[in-house]
Amino acid sequence: MTSPVHTALDLAARGIPVLPLRAGKRPFGNCPTCAGSACGDRPHMKAAGPCQCPRPCHGWAAATTDPAVLTSPDWAPAWREAMAVAYHPGGAGLTVVDLDTADAVTWARRTLPATRTVASTRGEHWIYQGTVRSVNGVRDSVDIKSTMAYARWLGTGTGTTAPLPDAVRALAAKEPSTVLPAPHAITVPAPVGGGECRHRTPVYLERGICMAEQRIADARSAVHTTVYRTFLAVLSAHGGCGCLTDAHVTRLFAAAQAKGESTRHCTDAWTNARTRLGL
Question: Which end of the chain, N or C, is less packed with Cβ atoms under 10 Å?
């Protein structure tokens, strides 16, 4: 079996920028200099660009085609732990339409022109020549990965790479759905003595939401798990008295989406947290 670093070197020789992935298909964590995406590796950051750090420290921006970097001592520990290889589609002039379910694949076959396809764990990657911005959740179980994103390398696939169609460009031009689950407010008796629920104190509630946003933003790996646990903590503290509003939930979802979570993943995490707490 070819080792991840050898796969990476082969791809780099073909002009495809690559980086190692740890278990869970996650990139290696940010270095202190790049903490919180300070280097600008997030789409909303004006100074976006390739990472200048010696280690593969933050996702797509660390991807490189330089064999000297890939085989440097600084990257050696990451390759020893790597479980897979990822690549930066936009850096190779490509766009990946990530189809996560059989229904999504069926939609693509009916809607998009045929192109090179690669089987994934739950569906398929459809690969086109050309780049657009990356957007998660453009449809149910459909993500677009191109500029400022990474995709797992799953092999060369089958078929011929077609030019990026207008249908995909149109999807990428749209904002992802922001439809949120309605917060489940539960009426509970006021505290003994007739005082107001402490969560209704603006400072107390605002501090809790800010801490939750920061916890998600600081996640370096296991983002899915961090988002779920953060939602669980917020609902544990504030979900039983009707304090949470649509605006609060929107902020939490926005924080998760800034880390790459789709609307579907956010909704699932929120629903699962409510279910666990019996809300």
Answer: N
Please give the pLDDT value at position 199: 58
Spatial distance between the Cα atoms of 63 and 39, rounded to a whole number of angstroms: 14
CA distance 252 to 173: 23
pLDDT tens by residue, 33-85: 666 566 656 554 444 566 777 778 778 888 999 999 999 998 998 999 999 99
In the block, residue with structure tokens 């490509």 = 94
Beta strands 18-22 and 26-27 are: antiparallel
Rounded Cα–Cα distance for residues 90 and 61 (Å): 11
pLDDT in tens, 156-191: 999 999 999 999 999 988 654 444 444 443 333 333
> How many of the other CB atoms lie within 10 Å of CB of 200?
13
Percent of the chain predicted with pLDDT > 70: 80
Rounded CA gap, 212 and 226, in Å?
10
Question: Which amino acid is located at 249 in the chain?
Answer: V
Tokens 């453009």 appear where?
A: 138
pLDDT band, residue 194 (cuts 50/70/90)? very low
